[in-house]
Amino acid sequence: MSDPLGPQVRRLFEALAHAGELSAAMVGAGATPADATAAHATRVVSGEAGRERRGTRVRFTLCLDGDRLLEVRYRAYGCPYTLAACEWLARRLEDGGPGRIGAPGEWAQALQIPPARMGRLLVVEDALRAALAAAGLSPALSATVSE
Amino acid sequence: MSAAEPVYLDYAATSPVDARVAAAMSECLTRDGVFGNPSSLHPHGRLARERVEHARAQVAALIHAEPQQLVWTSGATESNNLAILGTARAAARRGRHLISARTEHKAVIDPLHRLEHEGFQVTWLDTDQYGMIDPQRLRAALRDDTALVSIMHANNEIGVLQDIEALAAICRERAVPLHVDAAQSAGKVAVDVRRLQCDLLSFTAHKMYGPKGIGALYFAPARRAALQPLMFGGGHERGLRSGTLAVHQIVGFGVACELAATAWQADAEHCERLRTRLWLGLQAIDGVLLNGHPTARVANILNVSFTGIEGESLLMGLGELSLSTGSACNSDSDEPSYVLRALGRDTELAQSSLRFSLGRYSTEADIDRAIAAVTREVRRLRAIVP
Predict the structure, then answer these.
(1) At residue A115, does pLDDT exceed 60?
(2) The pairing of beta strand B97-101 with beta strand B70-73
(3) CA angle, corner A81, sides to A76 and A84, nearest 5?
(4) pLDDT tens digits for B32-57?
(5) Which of B1, B10, B259, B290 qualifies as a cystine partner to B319, CB 3.0-4.6 A?
(6) CB-closest option in A5, A75, A117 to B384
(7) What would the pLDDT profile of B275-287 be if each residue is shown by its tens digit?
(8) Which of B315, B334, B341 to probe the A interface (max A CBs under 10 A)?
(9) B385 and A75 in contact by Cβ < 8 A?
(10) Which residues of B, range 325-364, sit inside 8 Å of A by Cβ?
(11) Closest CA of chain A from B212, distance in Å
(12) CA distance A125 to chain B (A)
């Protein structure tokens, strides 16, 4: 029985492990916000794009230690492809940093997302770019994004 | 996807063929059965013709029509096309104005758009917040050059039942023919063309436990001469619809109608009881809204919107359920439901709807599984919205 979502999107959609919030208090075992900020210079920033009434709204939250990306979370309202892309990007960001994320066309190809949904991926990209910019990782790293 | 068998809650899309229907159909396929061409004059053909005419009587009886008032088609889409295109084109010299509603099925909307390209003008009636058409809106829209009014009986997305008798009375005052798409009501509620007083009525087998690929168009006696055929090539069906008759499908349609004629009330009571159970269960979730009229609707359809949820994600998260979203949800389109938009639902709510449609084989266990699955998935998705 064929799944309209495709196997990769289905797997990601059913296991949205990175969906949620981050705060400085959540970073590091037992660390308080004050500890985190003082001892590790840990920062939590976010970027958002889209609107529910347009079908897609995404917010990425990044936790950084200096310029080092520690954790990624997102919240999203959108179709399964949107949610799967957010999860996939969060995993890639945590694994390899912004240099690994590529461009929306590559995401669509990697996840076998139909061309009709590219508009949704552009909202995801906008949210991610906004978060990276808030982290001070752009324009250099966002330039990497668009390579 | 759950390992258990998925629960089927999409009877408004199609229904399984009743075993008695399938048995009758299988008698019309093989060498030892009634496989002849009903247009042939030899014994095999005459036997097939007998079966076809018997089925025509069975189908006509369901809607209280005379057998000669039916023409076989491939389904409700073709019936709608024949009724709309056939009537409008035949009447084009007298009038080129048509009336329909914004909440109609695409099988009505698209032929009307086709006619707009041919120079006809279409007035699209608005509905109220429940999807009901005010008969006075129809009265106001009628013109001297109106050639046809086409209004569906039961809406395929929200199940709302229009007051066809009232609409037909207004059409009769102005001698304008009324076509009714009854694809979702035939076999679900009492459909009596003598009482409805419509001029044309489309219906299909596969929504009432019959086979796909066969439907019928009823026409009132005065309408026969005013219908222009769409298909040519042999003059079958008294020139209205050429093409060799599919005996096995017609026979299946006949048996399905005969069964529906005796079972529809029990089916409706069964569906209403289960629909109530489903609605009560879903109401335990916050932010659940009923789409459509609370009482004037077929018993087997429940359409609800969930605030703060994207409909396609909700649907795709419900792998253990076979149902439809109100939006046109497929890999090529993510447009919100135009029917729900016509009711005044905003885009967000129109995108977050599910259509549950129940049937003869639905069970309480199915409903309970559906409630549990929807509750789980709504909570999961709401937990991650920004």
Answers:
(1) yes
(2) unpaired
(3) 65
(4) 999 999 999 999 999 999 999 999 99
(5) B1
(6) A75
(7) 999 999 999 999 9
(8) B334
(9) yes
(10) 330-334, 346-348, 351
(11) 21
(12) 16
Please report residues of A whose CB lies closer than 8 A to that of B386: 48, 57-59, 75-77
- The full DSSP string for chain A is ---TT-HHHHHHHH--TTBS---GGGSSTT--HHHHHHHH-EEEEEEEEEEGGGTEEEEEEEEEETTEEEEEEEEEES-HHHHHHHHHHHHHHHHH-GGG---HHHHHHHHT--GGGHHHHHHHHHHHHHHHHHTT-TTHHHHHHT-
Q: What SS3 string covers chain B?
A: CCCCCCEECECCCCCCCCHHHHHHHHCCCCCCCCCCCCCCCCHHHHHHHHHHHHHHHHHHHHCCCCHHHEEEECCHHHHHHHHHHHHHHHCCCCCCEEEEECCCCHHHHHHHHHHHHCCCEEEEECCCCCCCCCHHHHHHHCCCCEEEEEEECECCCCCEECCHHHHHHHHHHCCCCEEEECCCCECCECCCHHHHCCCEEEEECCCCCCCCCCEEEEECHHHHHHCCCCCCCCCCHHHCCCCCCCHHHHHHHHHHHHHHHHHHHHHHHHHHHHHHHHHHHHCCCCCEEEECCCCCECCCEEEEEECCCCHHHHHHCCCCEECEECCCCECCECCCCHHHHHCCCCHHHHHCEEEEECCCCCCHHHHHHHHHHHHHHHHHHHCCCC
Residue-wise pLDDT for B334-348, tens only, equals 678 899 999 999 888
The dihedral sign for the CA sequence A138, A143, A144, A146: positive
Contact A78 B310 (CB under 8 A): yes
Is B28 one of the catalytic residues?
no
The mean per-residue pLDDT over the stretch A72-86 comes to 96
Dihedral of alpha carbons B126, B131, B135, B138, sign: positive
Q: From the candidates B28, B171, B271, B329, which is the catalytic residue?
A: B329
Range of lowest pLDDT (A40-54, A111-125, B303-317)? A40-54
Q: Are B266 and B122 in contact (CB under 8 A)?
A: no
Q: Are A48 and B386 inside 8 Å of each other by CB?
A: yes
Contact residues, chain A, for B313 at CB < 8 Å: 13, 78-80, 82-83
ipTM: 0.85
Report the residue of chain A nearest B319, measured CA to CA: A3
Q: Which residue has 């299988």 as its token pair?
A: B26
**Using the beta-carbon criterion (under 8 Å), do A53 and B346 form an inter-chain contact?**
yes
For residue B316, list chain A residues with Cβ-Cβ distance below 8 A: 4-5, 13, 80
Q: How far apart are the CA of A55 and the nearest CA of chain B, in angstroms?
A: 7
